[in-house]
Each structure stands twice: as structure tokens, then as C-alpha cells.
Amino acid sequence: MSKQIEDVIEKVKQKNPGEVEFHQAVTEVLHSLEPAIEKHPEFERYKILERLVEPERVVMFKVAWLDDKQEIHVNRGYRIQFNSAIGPYKGGLRFHPSVNLSILKFLGFEQTFKNSLTGLAMGGAKGGSDFDPKGKSETEIMHFCQAFMAELWRFIGPDTDVPAGDIGVGGREIGYMFGQYRKVQNTFTGVLTGKGVDWGGSYIRPEATGYGTTYFAEQMLKARGETIKGKIVAISGSGNVAQYAVQKVNQLGGKVVTVSDSDGSIYDPDGVVGKKFDFFLDLKQKREGRIKEYADEFGVEYMPKQRPWSIKCDIAMPCATQNEIDKDDAQTLLDNGVMAVIEGANMPSTIEATNIFIEGGVSFGPGKAANAGGVACSGLEMAQNSQRVRWSPKEVDQRLHDIMEDIHQATYETASKYDSKSASSKIKNYVIGANIFGFEKVARAMIAQGIV
Ligand code: NDP
Ligand code: 2IT
Questions:
Q1: Domains of the chain by residue range
Q2: What is the pLDDT of residue 55?
Q3: Which atom of ligand 2 is nearest to the CA of 166?
Q4: Are 206 and 371 in contact (CB under 8 A)?
Q5: Distance 389 CA to ligand 1 centre (A)
Q6: Distance 375 CA to ligand 2 centre (A)
Q7: What's the pLDDT tens digit per position in 194-218?
Q8: Average pLDDT of the residues in 40-53
Q9: pLDDT single digits (tens) 101-141
Q10: Cα angle: 444, vertex 449, 452; to 5 degrees
Q11: How remote is the CA of residue 1 from the centroid of ligand 2, in Å?
């Protein structure tokens, strides 16, 4: 590995002690950029890597709120405005007790390249809070969202920074935050995406990440002469991304045999389909139920505290959270004959797991390419808001499909260009393809705009 790249990674570790997820994301991306850095000496001259790994702005703030028993709670809020070279800051908000600076910096860093891949004008950002929405009442959620936005509003705006959802933040939370923003700013504007369709939201945004990930999977398989039809698919998670990935895989004729939550996984060899899919959606969207209830209802196997990766499958789609596939899980999937792994979540595979897949000849779709459909549809929502128009579900879905096809094409071609193994194989190294393609555009924009 080049000395320049190793030096930058070492400096990131020294300057950001203990931020292990951030170190992981920087290491994974920078290692794969080596051929692009070699080809473009100007990137070193302009210190592009050093400048890219430093967020442009980090905001941390106190969120104090009252629960239903009038007890006071104090959480921490964050917004990491990572890079705005190609557009206003854009990225989700995560509410989960595990949220810290390291996790949000890894997510903001990744988002910069992901947003570049979409072909839309969006910079990279991420934010959120260590607030735990589980077990909270409707009013507690509303009060928390209002308290969070009472601080965040001064740092965001439709041409500055446009947050959206992520783990623990869906349409309901976006609604409460939007209401608070509108009140304090006295302006109705497209400052958040994932809004309801009656008040500025886009059709297909709830579906977009899961659908987009499946469209990307479809493209990857097509490139090697395969289809999703008839394939056994293991999916993890049961939130927004997982739900619509299951739906789209079903529509394309695949069979989804697992879904999970943080308590465990279910294994349904006949597929999460038909009435069982309706039950699953109702359980997770309306009743805040646990996935175990699916096993109880349909008499299928429940695997408490286990991830689904021990189940034999053709395709694995991790759609829950970071580092949910470690090297042992990857080896198990490989031994069981997995042919493709497509990341609906952000960085669900550890670096060791990713290497096992790539070296094992598995088609591996990294999150920043595969799950870019969510933020791409957010970009389409911003475009509709700016024009004060609303496109039909069919039109948005077609645009989403086209964007995922374009991302696949770009990452496929970039891998063939920069990676000698990819050039001679049908199975491309999409990690190299996605990182280099996303990076080069941001790097060129940073050079063009001077030292800022
Ligand atoms: P949701 O909150 O809707 O669902 C998250 C799911 O993952 C739940 O089933 C949850 O289980 C499970 N999960 C979360 N944290 C953990 C954990 N630490 N261990 C085990 N299971 C966990 O979030 P999304 O579906 O929106 O997000 C899922 C992933 O997709 C994340 O990595 C996110 O960053 C990424 N993503 C999301 C996009 C979006 O548009 N929403 C866009 C692109 C990527 P439980 O309910 O038990 O906590
Ligand atoms: O990780 C992601 O891309 C998201 N959570 C969606 C971000 C967005 O702005 O729609």
C-alpha cells in the first residue's frame, strides 16, 4: 500500500482516538483508492485525501426533554456536515442508543461517496442522537423530535443541509421534526426528505432503499447472466430497508427465507410471501412487534439472539446495521454456496468479511452503491420541492430504477478499468468501482473550487 495512504490512515487514527467505525470506513475506502491515486498525481499535490477525511463541520448539542411522567432526560444530538463540494449536505438522522461520534462520522464519510454515485448534486452528512425510541409513547417521541429540532434548525436549510431518516427515524419522526422547523423558521420549505406525500414528500421514498438495493442486485446478477427469479434470499433486519427489499425480491420471483430484529431471526423455508408478508409488514409498521411473533404465528423456526447467516442461501442482503457480518459469518455464507451479497445497510460487512467474499468469487455490492436508492429518491424529492411539483409513483420508480442501473454501470466499468482481476472476470470488484467512481468526482470538484 502506498506510503501516502498509510500515513493518512495513521493520522486519522491518531487524531480521532477510539473512533473505531470511522477508522474502519476510512481504511476500507482509502485502501481501494490506490490505483486512482497512482494515476492522478494531482490528488496528492492538492492533499485531497487529507482534506476528505476531515469533516467540514461537526455540531454537537444537548437535547433536554420531559417524558410522560414529567421526568427530565438529557440526550446528545449531532450533525456531521462532512463534505459539500458537489452539493448541499445530505444524509439521514439516526436515533439509537449506540449513536456516537465515531458511528456518525463513518456514516457521513460514506455518504459523501454514495451521494456522488447517485449523479445528483448532494454533499455528504449524517446526524442523530443516542435517544432510544423503543418503548417510548407517541407524545414522548414527539417531544423528543421537537427538542432535537429546536437546536438543529439553525444549522440546516434547503440549500445548506437536508436531513432525512435512518435507523429509528421514519415518516413519523420526520413529520414532528418538520413541524417544529416550520414553526421556528416560519417557512415551509423542503428542508427534510421523507416527508408525507400530502405535504411535500415524494412517492416511493419509503420504498426506495429496499427497492433500489434489489434493483442493484438484479443488475449485478444480470451482468453474470443470472436473475433473482428462483433464488433463495437471506435478509437481515425488519425495518424500512428490509421490508421493501423483501417486497421487491418477492415481486421479482425470489424467495426470502429470513428476516430479523435485534432479538433474533426467523427462518421460513417457504418464504415471507403473500399473507405472511402482509402480517410481517403490519407487525413492524403498525404494532411495533418483535419478529418472534412471526414465528409464533406461522410455526416456523425462531433463532433467538442469532443473525440469519447460518441459513443456506444464494443471495444475502444485510439490511440491519453496521458490522453485522463478521469473518465467521462470511465464511459460513461462502461455504453454503452464496453467490451474491448486496448491502442494504451501511457497512454491514467487516473488512475481513468483505475480503472473504471478494476473494471467494462472490458478487459483492457495497452499501454505498447498493443502498444509494434511498438518498437518490431523497434527491428526487428535493427536485420536486424546488419545482413545486409532484411526480407520479410510476415516474419516481422509473427514475430510481434508471439511477440504480447507472450506478451499476459506472461501478462495473470503473472496476474493469482500475482492477486487473475485474478486467478479465465477469465478477467485478464493486468496492473498487464504487469508491473510485464516487471519489473522483468529489476530488475534481475540490480541486476546481480551491483551498477552502
Ligand atoms: P429501521 O430503524 O427502520 O430498521 C432497523 C432494523 O435493523 C430493525 O429491524 C432493527 O431491529 C435492526 N437493528 C438496528 N440496530 C441493530 C443492532 N445494533 N443489532 C441488530 N439489529 C439491529 O432502519 P432502516 O431500515 O432505515 O436502516 C437499516 C440500515 O439501512 C442502516 O444501516 C441504515 O443506515 C441503512 N440505510 C437506510 C436508508 C433509509 O433510507 N432508511 C438508506 C440507506 C441505508 P430492532 O427493531 O430490534 O432494533
Ligand atoms: O444512509 C442513507 O443513505 C440514508 N439514511 C438516507 C439519507 C437520505 O438523505 O435520504
A1: 3-187, 208-365
A2: 98
A3: 5
A4: no
A5: 30
A6: 5
A7: 999 999 999 999 999 999 999 999 9
A8: 97
A9: 999 999 999 999 999 999 999 999 999 999 999 999 999 99
A10: 115
A11: 31
| Closest approach atom of ligand 1 to CA 114 | 43
Summarize pLDDT for 370-383 with one digit per residue, the tens.
999 999 999 999 99
Pick the CATH number of 3-187 from 3.40.50.880, 4.10.410.60, 2.60.40.290, 3.40.50.10860: 3.40.50.10860
Cell 480551491 found at: 450
Active site residues: 126
With a pLDDT cut of 70, the percent of the chain lying above it is: 100
Q: Is 128 in the pocket of ligand 2 (CB under 6 A)?
A: no
DSSP 202: P
Report the pLDDT value the prediction gives residue 1, as an integer from 0 to 100.
77
pLDDT tens column, 385-408:
999 999 999 999 999 999 999 999
pLDDT at residue 150 in the model: 98
Domain 208-365, CATH: 3.40.50.720
Could you please report the per-residue DSSP string of 18-55? T-HHHHHHHHHHHHHTHHHHHH-HHHHHTTHHHHHTS-
Using CB atoms within 10 A of its CB, is residue 318 exposed (0-12), middle (13-18) or buried (19+)?
buried
Is 141 within 8 Å of 176 (Cβ atoms)? yes
CA distance 425 to 412: 11
Residues 6+ positions from 296 with CB-CB distance below 8 Å: 302
Q: Which helix (H) or strand (E) is 9 found in, with range?
A: helix 3-15
pTM of the model: 0.98
Looking at ligand 2, which residue's alpha carbon is closest to its atom 1? 92
Q: Which residue has the cell 407524545?
A: 139
Distance 281 CA to ligand 2 centre (A): 21
As a whole number, the mean pLDDT across the chain is 98
Bridge partners (DSSP) listed for residue 363: 340
Task: Give φ, ψ of 8 to 5 degrees.
Answer: -65, -45
Say yes or no: do domains 3-187 and 208-365 share a fold.
Answer: yes
Protein residue closest via CA to atom 10 of ligand 2: 375
Q: Which three cell numbers stand for residue 77?
A: 444530538
Ligand 1 contacts (CB < 6 A) are: 98, 165-168, 209, 237-242, 261-263, 319-321, 344-346, 371, 374
Within 33-170, residue ranges assigned H as helices are 34-39, 41-45, 48-52, 101-117, 138-152
- Give the residue-averaged pLDDT of 162-190: 98
pLDDT tier at 434, thresholds 50, 70, 90: very high
Query: Would the pLDDT of 8 be above 90?
Result: yes
Q: Residue 400 and residue 374: Cα distance in Å, rounded? A: 9
